[in-house]
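R.M. (postdoc): so does anyone remember the format we settled on? I'll just put the structure tokens first.
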């Protein structure tokens, strides 16, 4: 799935920075652009940063409503031209994204004021648009215009995820990478070197997240595995001869799946409220044993009791970790 990420506000831009450092050569990111206040730290390589002052926020949002993103061209014109090629140059532009993910720090004025007009602007096109809302568990800071314009909203309860000493998402150095990991697992499923046993494509993501503005929560877990020469760290999946121990590897797959299924979600939700689910498991291709992954998928089916469950595997060459992500769509926040 080719995804274009947009960051709004300090926390949203820092998550984009973290994503740009994580995806490497995975063929999933069509580009990234950040909109933030000038006092945010410089971005990582590959992130187009556009800063606006607090005074400019209202004008910026007004420009979006006039279909004039960033004051110079429409959003899709910018996508076509960001790599320096246009149809006028005689070069076919890059393939358009199959989804746009707006990561909005709703503790900032940019994240609240700009998110609604931006999502309304993007919703005028055929590409699915998803909102990642950094707010509290009730999403009280999120603009209703943004929620209504988004095909789906992934909720991030910042009170549960940022360090107690941090006042905002941008103040916690670990928070951006934590959320970037979960977004990568949700949207980026293609390895450039290995084909998965079961492919997750843009159509699967669209079917699970839906188009009716569903609320989404993501559970994630990973396990480091010992390598053949040393079992000092992580789960040891090798026998005395250095060969894979299928029983131990099966246990590792079950463990990481259960942690993603029953552990902390990006947004605490009521039990048995999931309408649709996506099960993603990834790691070194030789460790993604088909039978064991299928058994773990059965556990997910039984626990979620969703109307629809899709999923697949993500081979990650050279990794020493297994990871699993459980994406729940159509959830109800805990406490409502």
């Amino acid at each position: 799935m080719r995804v274009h990420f947009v960051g709004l506000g300090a926390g949203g831009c820092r998550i984009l920075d973290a994503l740009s450092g994580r995806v490497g050569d995975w063929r999933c990111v069509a580009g990234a652009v950040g909109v933030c206040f000038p006092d945010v730290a410089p971005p990582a390589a590959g992130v187009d940063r556009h800063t606006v002052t607090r005074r400019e926020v209202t004008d910026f949002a007004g420009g979006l409503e006039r279909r004039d993103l960033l004051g110079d061209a429409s959003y899709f014109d910018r996508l076509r031209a960001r790599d320096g090629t246009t149809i006028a140059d005689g070069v076919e532009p890059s393939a358009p994204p199959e989804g746009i993910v707006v990561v909005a720090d709703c503790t900032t004025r940019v994240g609240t004021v700009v998110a609604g007009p931006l999502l309304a602007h993007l919703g005028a096109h055929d590409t699915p648009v998803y909102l990642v809302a950094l707010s509290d568990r009730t999403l009280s800071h999120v603009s209703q215009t943004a929620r209504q314009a988004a095909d789906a909203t992934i909720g991030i309860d910042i009170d549960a995820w940022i360090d107690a000493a941090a006042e905002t998402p941008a103040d916690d150095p670990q928070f951006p990478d934590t959320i970037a990991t979960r977004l990568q697992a949700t949207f980026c499923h293609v390895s450039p070197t290995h084909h998965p046993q079961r492919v997750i494509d843009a159509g699967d993501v669209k079917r699970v997240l839906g188009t009716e503005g569903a609320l989404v929560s993501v559970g994630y877990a990973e396990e480091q595995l010992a390598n053949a020469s040393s079992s000092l760290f992580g789960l040891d999946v090798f026998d005395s001869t250095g060969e894979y121990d299928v029983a131990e590897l099966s246990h590792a797959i079950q463990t990481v799946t259960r942690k993603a299924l029953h552990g902390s979600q990006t947004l605490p939700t009521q039990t048995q409220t999931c309408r649709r689910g996506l099960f993603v498991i990834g790691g070194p291709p030789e460790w993604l044993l088909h039978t064991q992954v299928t058994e773990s998928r059965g556990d997910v089916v039984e626990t979620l009791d969703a109307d629809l469950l899709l999923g697949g595997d993500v081979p990650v060459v050279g990794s020493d970790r297994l990871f699993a992500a459980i994406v729940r769509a159509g959830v109800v926040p805990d406490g409502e």
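R.M.: ...and that's the designed sequence above, right after the tokens. Also worth knowing: Strands lie at 3-8, 29-36, 48-51, 99-105, 129-135, 152-157, 214-224, 276-283, 308-315, 321-329. The chain has ten helices and ten strands.
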